[in-house]
Design goal:
- α2 packs across α4.
- 38% of the residues are buried.
- With 478 residues, the chain is α+β, with helices and mostly antiparallel strands.
- The two termini are 24 Å apart.
- It contains nine helices and 32 strands.
- It folds into three domains: 3-11 and 106-164 and 252-475, 5 Propeller (Tachylectin-2, Chain A), CATH 2.115.10; 17-102, no CATH class; 177-236.
- Strands 22, 23, 24, 25, 26, 27 and 32 form a seven-stranded antiparallel β-sheet that branches.
């Protein structure tokens, strides 16, 4: 079996920066900075603001809008009157509460890949794709970034020209929720008072709902815990503002919820088809520094992203990957349970997963520590082709593959008895040594395109002929 490793390599870049609000501790910090800037003459403000804009306007899209937004945020914390500040002084003040964050300063790795929603104006044999990656920066906080490109009939991969900027997508605080949505989510929570959800109007924003409930149940101490639970639901079930004006490879999905403040890890995107409808789902691990939670990104065209939480007893570990279509009328997921074994689960509800069954456990030396999926499977005439990762001696990661029955994917009908991809001598060194890993693959005719992370420090591509891989797999039907 011939495995072709592309010469394409791309690496983490410390130049990939976004802007963020700079929070300062202490009650007097904001006041002190405001008063210092108040004492600047208008000429000094203009001169200093000019220097700031000269240094940073070419590094961020619409940096003046950012400064003004952060100035407006300060007005809510500062008791004094600063509305009379000139426009330049407002921008200057806002710049002191803005910081750069290098999203890839530590690593760029663990890619997934899906067909682009726009396949128009291509040459015969070409396919356009969208690839997501995990970017990790200061404090080991992970966010999601994208690359787009085209693969042709000769398997040449061309990445689209990068945007000059990286822009963090903003949370849509005006997003509406329904009472039915809240009732569905809270029905899975232990100890939640159902009458609280029933007292909400038909539609509302998160802020409106909490204000209504806190006012109505202000004297009911027993309702406080239920309201807190509801706040946590709104925290992890949110929407991002439309980003259609931005190229996809400029967009950054940075943690927006408390439950994911330390990272959005290893998103596994899949194009899910249900009849004539299609939607992209991306399952990822949210990490708050202590606990993990499985989240699901939903988008039609990588413009508006909706984030939802998965619930149920089976949602207990990392690496959940959704099948690209229903099987026997049910949603299907593979995941890892107990840290080392791979499971499979079926559900009528995309967001609720109560039961799972063992799919596979470590057998070969290169997977004795743990194993799991490497993203969603690809449908073939022979079965569901699922890439797996295994961890062996010296925490060495490899990628292999199994084949699942089309009608009953809880059955493994064939598998490789050796690694498919492992780090060669030029790939062993990096942020995390001896690791190859992927969160998804793309079928291109009879070829498989596998983007893979190299020791968490670079990303490359492997191409493999599908039939050659299937022929290499050991038949387990008997």
């Amino acid at each position: 079996m011939k495995i072709n490793k592309s010469s394409i390599r791309f690496y983490a870049s410390a130049e990939a920066v976004i802007n963020q609000f700079l929070y300062l501790p202490g009650e007097d910090r904001v006041k002190n900075i405001v008063e210092r800037i108040r004492n600047f003459s208008e000429e000094e403000v203009q001169e200093c603001l000019g220097d700031v804009l000269k240094d940073f306007s070419n590094r961020h899209r619409n940096i003046e809008e950012v400064f003004l937004k952060h100035f407006n945020k300060i007005t809510k914390q500062f008791n004094g009157d600063i509305s009379s500040f000139s426009s330049e002084r407002k921008l200057f003040l806002g710049s002191f509460f803005t910081k750069e964050y290098s999203i890839q300063a530590a690593a760029l790795f663990n890619p997934s890949i899906v067909p682009h929603f726009d396949q128009q104006n291509l040459k015969q044999g070409e396919q356009r794709f969208i690839m997501s990656l995990r970017a990790t920066g200061e404090g080991h906080i992970s966010s999601i970034v994208f690359k787009t490109g085209i693969i042709d009939d000769l398997l040449n991969i061309t990445l689209d020209k990068e945007s000059e900027y990286f822009t963090c997508l903003q949370k849509n605080h005006g997003a509406k929720y329904s009472r039915q949505f809240v009732q569905k989510c809270t029905s899975l929570l232990h100890g939640f008072k159902n009458e609280i959800a029933e007292s909400l109007p038909d539609n509302f924003t998160a802020k409106e709902a909490i204000a209504i409930l806190k006012n109505k149940y202000s004297s009911d101490e027993s309702a406080a815990n239920s309201i807190k639970q509801l706040e946590e639901i709104f925290d992890t079930n949110y929407e991002l503002q439309s980003s259609s004006r931005l190229p996809i490879n400029e967009k950054v999905i940075f943690p927006n919820a408390k439950a994911e403040r330390m990272g959005m890890e290893d998103v596994r995107f899949v194009k899910f088809i249900d009849g004539n409808e299609s939607v992209y789902y991306g399952s990822y691990t949210a990490y708050d520094g202590k606990h993990i939670k499985t989240q699901l990104i939903e988008t039609k065209d990588f413009d508006v992203f909706k984030i939802r939480t998965l619930y149920g007893a089976a949602v207990s570990d990392k690496g959940m990957a959704l099948f690209p279509e229903k099987v026997n009328g049910k949603y299907v997921m593979t995941a890892r349970q107990g840290g080392e074994k791979m499971s499979i689960m079926f559900s009528d509800d995309l967001y609720s997963w109560e039961n799972f069954q063992l799919l596979m456990e470590p057998e070969y030396s290169w997977e004795l520590v743990q194993l799991g999926n490497c993203g969603s499977p690809v449908k073939t005439d022979a079965g569901w082709l699922l890439l797996t990762h295994g961890v062996g001696a010296m925490r060495t990661y490899v990628i292999s593959a199994i084949l699942l029955d089309l009608k009953d994917p809880s059955k493994i009908i064939a598998r490789l008895d050796k690694p498919l991809i492992k780090a060669d001598e030029s790939e062993r060194e990096g942020y995390v040594p001896n690791v190859v890993y992927t969160c998804g693959l793309l079928r291109h005719g009879n070829m498989l395109i596998i983007p893979y992370a190299v020791s968490d420090s670079a990303t490359g591509f492997v191409t493999i002929e599908l039939n050659a891989l299937l022929d290499e797999m050991k038949n387990l039907k008997n």
